Amino acid sequence: MPKERSAPNFVTATTAVELRIKEIILSDLLKGIDRHTTFRKLKTLIEAFGKRIRDENVRLKFETSLAQNALRLYGKTQMELEEMAGSYGIPLHALILAISGKTRRANNEPTEDKTPATPPHTPSADKIREFLYEDRIEIPDYHAKVKAEIRKIAENLADEEMKDRNGASLRNVAEIHVRHDYQQASIEQMRNDGVRLVWASTHIDCSKRCFPWQGRLYSLDGSSGVTDTGVPYIPLETAVNVPYTTKAGKTYMNGLLGFNCRHRLIPYKDEQVPPQGYTAAQTRRAYRIDQTQRAIEREIRKVKTRAHLIRDIGVASRGEVSSLFRTARQMTAAYRKYCERHNTVAMIYRTQVTLEEQAINRNNYFNARRT
Q1: What is the pTM of this model?
Q2: pLDDT digits over 110-128, tens only?
Q3: 305: which of 114, 151, 286, 294 lies 20 to 30 Å off by Cα?
């Protein structure tokens, strides 16, 4: 059974900042905090995240994408909340005030009195009085109904995926950059060490894009030829610089070691045999398993994100929140078993949504190794 891989910090940090953006948006809207204050908070959060990124272009790309997603989600969530309040015929801030357990005196000071105070005589206040203070409506039922609707809006927000301008998941883009940086550093180090020929590793769940190139021998100096043992080799660039056109019509060089590629380069030694090869049928089966893993990981992240959001805004009981976190743990356990059953790596970091969770899992991993 393969060991679980520890999480790249940047990938989990990306997921964590997305969660925090959603928490700020929902919490501030429900508290009636003005949008300028909320946007200042979001700007500070995004800039702090950007400091993790050394490359200026990559940093700008992520900061811009996060800011655009934050604006989009703020507008969408605000509209959903206002539509909900509008269905009751009262402003959003009045609706939130009503379900918070607080009322206001005539001088507009908050009070925790259980007996509703008489609101000031304004058109909106008249609607609030008509809705809240007439016997024809049971206030407890009203509270429960509104909280259920807010919870649904929170769950919708939790399920929203943040994407870059090309429609790619920001979390996936983060993982792509982590792998790309590792690949480039590895190639540079091998060149510095005088390595001339390298094998491309193989893995059974290889994508169609990489399948023709895995398990072959390449040169790092641009040469082509045949080794003394009869193994042909070509320049690495031949396998790397393969044009790929997206659905949006954009073309990238995306062959071996391209987007989200997990292949490694292994220094060649005389008399060394090529890495294990796989048939197309084996690869297709493994790829289906890999895609199932990714789907399970996404669902686990969704459940955890929902639990965090509804806990923070108080629209669910402690037991309901605990139940969601328990469901996430059960899903993670089932995910581990799925990976074990198919003899594949459990990417636990892909189920994490906070840096605290990453630290706990890392500590558990090292503690287990010491026992």
Answers
A1: 0.74
A2: 444 443 443 343 444 455 4
A3: 286
